[in-house]
Amino acid sequence: ANGHGIDFSATSNSSGTMQNELLEDYEEGTFTPAYSGGLVGSSYSAQKGVYTKIGRFVFGTIRIDLATASTQNNNVIDIQGLPFQAGAYSTIGGIAGCAHYGYQDGFYNARQFSGLVIDNGTSIRLYKRDDGSYLTGTDVNGGREIRIDFHYHAA
User: Fold this and answer.
1) Is the pTM value of this prediction over 0.70?
2) Is 118 helix (H, G, I), strand (E, B) or coil?
C-alpha cells in the first residue's frame, strides 16, 4: 500500500533476530561527487556518481577525473557529496561503509587504496592499503581519475 512499503512477512525465514520485513524505500539516482581536503579541484573532466538505495543500504559507483587541482597538500583526501548521510558506528555496530577502486589513472602510483565512508557524514575518506594511513594530496600524481564502487548503511 502507498506509504507503507512491501510486506514480506508471509515468507519469513530468518535464522537471526529479525526486526522488520517491510521494504520501505527504493530509489535510484545520480549525484555529483568532488574531491575535498588535501585535493580540491578547480575543474573536472568528469564528475559523476550513480546510486541505488534499497531500504537503508546505498550502493553506487563514482567516476571523478580532475582536470585542474586548486589545492594539493598534506591533508587527507575525501570524496564528498554522497547522496545520503551514513549511519553511525555506535548504532550499526561496524563501519558505515567502504569503497574500492576499479580503475585509477596513475592516481596513487598504481598502488592499492580504498575508502571508508565517514560515520554520520556524506564523504568517503581514502586510505593506503599497504600501511593503513590516509591518502593525502601530496601522495597523488599527475593522473587524477578514479572509478570506485561503494556501499554503506544510511542513517
Assistant:
1) yes
2) coil
Amino acid at 96: A
CA 45 to CA 8: how far, in whole Å? 44
Give the pairing of strands 34-54 and 57-80: antiparallel
d(CA 89, CA 130): 24
Cell, residue 55: 531500504
Pick from 37, 38, 112, 34: nearest CA to 66: 34
Q: What ranges in the chain are assigned the alpha helix state H? A: 89-92
**pLDDT tens for each residue of the chain, 155 residues long:** 455 777 766 666 666 665 667 777 899 999 999 999 999 988 999 999 999 999 989 999 999 999 888 889 999 999 999 999 999 877 666 677 889 888 988 787 767 899 999 999 999 999 999 899 999 998 887 668 899 999 999 98
